Amino acid sequence: MLTPYDPWLVWIIPLVGALIVPVIGYFSKSEMSKKIRDVVAVVFSGLAVVLAIFMIPDASPGFDSKVEWFRLSPTRAVSVGVLVDPLSVFVANVAADIGFLIMLYSIGYMHKEEDMDRYWFFMLFFIGGMILLVMSDNLLQLFLGWEIVGTCSWGLIGYWYKKSKDYDDPWIGTMAEGDYNAHAGMKAFIATRVGDMALLTAILLIYLFAGTFNYVELESSSGWAVGLASIGLLIPTALLFFGGPIGKSAQFPLDVWLLEAMAGPTTVSALIHAAAMVKAGVYLVARFLPIFLIASATIPGVQIFPAVVAGIGAFTALLAATMGCVQREIKKVLAASTISQLGYMFLALGVGGLMTGDFMAGYAAGTLQLAAHAIFKALLFLGAGAVLHSVGSIYMDEMGGLRKKMPITFVCMLIGALSLSGIPPFAGFFGKESIFEVLWIGGETNIFIAALFVIAALTAVFTVFYSFRLIGLTFFGPSSKHVKELEHEHGVHEAPPVMWIPLVILAVFTVFFGFLGPLFNGYMGHPVDFTEFFVGIFTSTTFILTLIIIALGFTPACYFYIMRKGNFEKLTRRGSVLGSLRNFFFNRWYINAFYYKVFVNGFLGLCRKMRSVIEEKGIDKFNYVAARGFGQMSNRLRKIHTGILSVNIIYIVAGAVLFLLILLLA
Amino acid sequence: MELDLALYLAVAGFLYALGIYCMTTKRNLIKLTIGLEILLSAANLNLLVFSAYRVVGFVDPLPQALVILSIVIGGAVAAVALSMVINVYRHYGTLDVRKIRKLKW
Q1: Among candidates A641, A644, A649 on the partner chain, residue whose Cβ is nearest the Cβ of B98
Q2: Is-cis flag, bond preceding A300, omega within 30?
Q3: Do residue B104 and residue A653 have CB atoms under 8 angstroms apart?
Q4: Testing the interface with B: which of A636, A639, A649 to mutate, by most B Cβ within 10 A?
């Protein structure tokens, strides 16, 4: 570490930067000063990278450094702290390093935008919040970082809320594009909020029994688990806790927000929805699962929790992979792919938890896939951004034949797709292979894990298919009409260097990261022999299975989309089996439609009913009745004023007599 | 109560009744003013009577002083009332109260 305060500075600096850059932006009116502001923003993010990288050597054995914040009682205090250990340093690096490359890329991608102050603020705030989340040593601080990234996600998805052209969404309807973007941002926020509330409930329940939020203390004391189990709330608390990752990492049943989140700029999709925020859920499960298993080691029946994690992960992986096969927009394929790969990570962590003897294998496999996926998914998103930037359309039907026009982007995206499909020797292959190995070993003794293995294998076939469908539709085949029109106007050209340099860097990492596998496993506490790792991978049964999977997935994709033979449209015409399957997948298994119908429209309907019954018939009616009643009464009273003088005098006399009588008699 | 006192009070009472009758039934504003003055005189007589007959053999000067004050006030009231009547006549062209019916609902 460069300074003893590195673990603190690594998240404080981006947060400070988030405050400073808009101030600079406020005072910069000329092009030059705007460029300075952009460079300052990237520099802040770069500083975080430097600090993060220099924390790596000190991560193991780690340390926990905390400062007391306030006291609740003589025995209970809430403190702020950082925990330096392999997992936190590692994920902090993922967030900071990939974040920096994406910030650099944004200078090119967003250079025509006007509102960049807001963009840089949210991006830096996000990076700071993410690193805060990862480096914190207690659950409360983690929740703070969790909410920060959720807010930045909302802010950045709805970044282009001012656009006024109409946009046709197949699931929500037609509205102005700015409104759609804002809707997407709100949807992401609300969906993750549901998960966040579950997480907060679980955190507070644990605090109630443990008296501390700190990870180290939670792990070393098992009183809280026993206490919770004695009232039967241990598993529900753990499941509520998992609710947070379900929301943040877009797993079933809270996966509906991630596809809409593609409404934001591509850099946002790359950073938040590929490299960082969605990984926060995986990080949390990786952090919590060991604590949970160690603390509840003496309690029977806790295997349900890792089983649920693994089951949801596997199901989501399959669900999302099928959704990705039929999307028309390039970013939505990548979004579905992200959900699917996150499912794999949860699957690995959960299965590791089920195999109590070999937990670290699953843990290491899940985190290896976390890193590899972050790199190649960011690569794919940034590549897609370069394509979008050149072609100006999000639909893959309007692309095609871009192989020769954008060669660097093509090669980088091809590398990304190969990695995503799990083709050796790219990073994704090692990640997926590790997960399959863990599943294979676990499946020998546990039939549930064996079933999950089958689901994972099936998902892998779909993964290969949609990856190459994406590459084929975008880069191969004849140019679409749209591309031809653009060719006439100003040509479709490669992205500027500030955009393809990060692409190339990420591509290089994708190629070589997998080979760091043994180092990585050792770093995470699961030491593996170097030769054993590589020889083992290439000679195991799972390797042969992987080759079969790749062949199964690649062949149809190649046939339909790369060589452009055969007519996929005819195969999926209305009424046929494939056609109805396609509709089912395209409508996201109707989960999204269900939520809109039941929750959104249901809630809005309830509000309308409340308004008409309670507000209009109840409260308003009371107001009208009261007002009208008073009006009528005063109308009657006013007849007293006759204006006839004699009558008034009689009133005076009568009043005087009455007064006298009262005086005399009382 | 002595006969003298009763008689004086009866006169005052008669004057009250006369004043009230005049104010409630007359149409002419001047007549109403006269009625008001009669009512005032009734009150003054009422007060004066009690100066002589409250305590036997002693004439209380306080009511007599009050009555002088009251007469002056009565004079002032009459002056103001008559000036208002003149203005009313100038504004409405009539002295009939039934025609001046503005302060109604």
Answers
A1: A644
A2: no
A3: no
A4: A649
Is-cis flag, bond preceding A253, omega within 30? yes
Report CB contact under 8 Å: B24, A640.
no
- What's the rounded Cα separation, in Å, for the pair A552 and A437? 20
- Distance, in Å, from the CA atom of A381 to the CA atom of A274, rounded to the nearest integer, reads 8
Count other Cβ atoms within 10 Å, centred on residue A625: 10
Instruction: Write out chain A residues lying below 8 Å of B97, CB-based.
Output: 644-646
Alpha-helical regions (H) of A79-212: 86-109, 116-135, 139-157, 177-210
Strands A63-71, A77-84: parallel, antiparallel or unpaired by DSSP?
Answer: antiparallel
Identify the H or E element spanning B67.
Answer: helix B61-92
B102/A643 touch (CB, cutoff 8 Å), yes or no: yes
DSSP A524: T
Q: Does domain B3-99 have CATH number 1.10.10.10?
A: no
The residue with tokens 């990234």 is A149
pLDDT class of A573 with cuts at 50, 70, 90:
low
**Torsion, CA A266, CA A269, CA A275, CA A281, rounded to 10:** 180
Distance CA(B22)–CA(A644), nearest Å, equals 15
- CA distance, residue B102 to nearest chain A CA (Å): 6
Report how far apart, in Å, the C-alpha atoms of A83 and of each of A5, A199, A276, A395, A397 are.
12, 20, 19, 44, 48
Q: Is the pLDDT of residue A54 over 90?
A: no
Residue B63: which of B41, B85, B47, B42 has the closest Cα?
B47
Residue A136 DSSP symbol = B
Q: Is the dihedral of CA A369, A468, A500, A29 positive or negative?
A: negative
Distance CA A98, CA A117 (A): 21
- Three-state secondary structure call for residue A395: strand
Our CA-based measurement puts residue A637 at a distance from the nearest CA of chain B, in whole angstroms, of 9
**Residue A568: band (very low, low, confident or very high) from pLDDT cuts 50, 70, 90:** low
Contact A321, A355 (CB under 8 A): no
Mean pLDDT check: name the lowest of A316-325, A446-455, A532-541, A610-619.
Answer: A532-541
Which of B24, B32, B104 has the CB atom closest to A650's CB atom? B24
Interchain CB distance below 8 Å, B104 and A650:
no
Cα A10 versus chain centre, distance: 22
Task: Indicate yes or no: CB of A646 within 8 angstroms of CB of B101.
Answer: no
For chain A, how many residues are written? 666
Alpha helix locations (H) across A446-515?
447-475, 481-489, 497-513
Backbone dihedral region for residue A173 (phi beyond 0: left; psi -120 to 50: alpha; all else: beta) = left
Q: What pTM was estimated for this model as a whole? A: 0.80
pLDDT of residue B72: 97
- CA dist A495 and A332 (Å) reads 21
Kindly list the residues from chain A whose CB atom is less than 8 angstroms away from the CB atom of residue B20.
Answer: 649, 653
What tokens were used for A456? 């994972």
- Contacts B99 to A, Cβ<8 Å: none
Nearest to B104 among A643, A649, A650 (CB): A643
pLDDT tops 90 at residue B81: yes
A616 to chain B, closest Cα gap in Å: 34
Q: If residue A69 lies in a helix (H) or strand (E), which one and from where to where? A: strand A63-71
pLDDT tens digits, one per residue of A296-350: 877 887 888 889 999 999 999 999 999 888 888 889 999 999 999 999 999 999 9
Chain B residue with Cα closest to A656: B20
Side-chain-side CA neighbours of residue A160 (13 Å): 19
8 A C-beta contact, residue B32 and residue B97: yes
